[in-house]
Request: fold
Amino acid sequence: MSFLCDGSPRDDDPYATQARQWETSMMRACCNNPLGCCVSMICAPCCVCYLRKEALNGDWSKYSCCQGFVCGKCAAYIPMQDSCPQLCLCLEAVCCESCAISGTRIYVQVERQIQTDPCDNRIIRFNNFMQILSCICNILAMFEPSLQEIARIIDFIADIVYCLTQACMQTQTHYELKLHPTVNDYGNDPGPKPVGLPGHASAPQGHQPQGYPQQQQQQHGYPQQQQQHGYPQQQQQGYPPQQQGYPPQQGYPPQQQSGYGAPQGYPQQGAPPPGYH
Reply:
């Protein structure tokens, strides 16, 4: 069962390294183009004829049954391909609907160099598995009557899976043709680029969006404070700056070391001064 979840292309897939990608995958085709999905589910053969005409750009000289991608060289022997391609296309859409849908999709993929999407591979492989399983169950039910109910249930599920798969496939092709009607509409762009890779405009580093001015660190009315090592020296406007430290104090006169002499600046003890009683 691992091959049902494997989205890798085959080893001989020539479309795995194409330059472009689908504008939408089959998984998201119904969301991107809901009207086309509904029309494809209601009337698939009509959509087959319309998409083939759009893929050929109205040039019926390019038409061939399934565009030569199914049955190979045997498709060249089918009559009315050159004389009445419109009638041949109608018969192709009614009798070989699934092959006609795949032929148009592969033709668009090859002409526009679109690589295979891994998710598309998973959906297509799961549909093929359900069709094969339904076929096997119906064959077994022919020999074992007790398997008829199981065969009907699986056949019903396989029909639903096919209806959804063909609708997603045709919607994907229609969405691609609607955005790019011709190959020249792609220009020189090799294909859509995912978001985040080079080629998408991004704001340079350090650029601020318009509408928000760059904030200034210094606000009006408040002087910028300068921090120094230790405690910052605060200065307030309107007040004189404080003096650095305290003014040096004048020391006391040196005392005499010898004896108990009186210090300088004081009269010596002895006789009282004149006029003292």
About this structure: Confidence is low (pLDDT under 50) at residues 191-223. The two ends are 136 Å apart (CA to CA).
